[in-house]
Amino acid sequence: MxxxxxxxxxxxxxxxxxxxxxHAHKVIIEDMRFNPQTxxxxxxxxxxxxxxxxxxxxxxxxNGSFDSHPIAPDGSWTYVARKAGxxxxxxxxxxxxxxKVEVR
Amino acid sequence: xxxxVYLLGAVLGSSIALAWAQGGSGAxxxxxxxxxxxxxxxxxxxxxxxxxxxxxxxxxxxxxxxMVTDHSGFNEAAVSLAHKLHLTPESSxxxxxxxxxxxxxxxxxxxxxxxxxxxxxxDHEVAYHQAVIDAVDKVLLPSAHNPQLKALLxxxxxxxxxxxxxxxxxxxxxxxx
Lengths: 104, 177
Description:
The complex is a heterodimer. Chain A is mainly β.
């Protein structure tokens, strides 16, 4: 009861959130590839890159919008996509590794 | 029945040739393949460690560091898998040839410095990675029996391909200087 009264006073529990529903996405880095290679998300969505290779990688936007810096083996890095656009990215360590994020 | 003599790393100067002739001792066994993979990685780690210290160009130094990091990481995974599969790596003419080729390459590189070192190291990296990819495709993958060992080779292949492309890019940029 005390909890309900507190929530009611602050108004937090009574009001539904106006925030747009956002999603979480995963990009698996494995065998020198970003999977999926092209990811389509909406503004505000979270993208997590997970490195399953036994050595580090990066996810680095070619226009400088985001840069994970080294993601260790079994490590991950999360980015919230705020601005609409198409973002090509690469691993700065490996010349063959390229990916794209489309933010709508 | 097709039988093969497989000689990877027939080293002449800084070049590596892959010779796979008909007749002879047959395809490598799984324990021999495990040793070939581990040796191939180690040879490149050793060359990379030397180049990290001796390379003149910062691009070559960074490439060498990448070779050490990637092949060390991959080797740990390979050794761990071999252990899990109760696969004791077993030396073969191929793994011995790779080891000797690696030692000869190190001996040749130690005599060089500056731009000559960079060129010799990068040229060798191009030839070496191409030879290893050929070996994976023509000898190791067709010969491997254990599915997990095959899977490991499939995982190794894109690593070698990336390193080959990277080495070629650096070779072009060195040539342009």
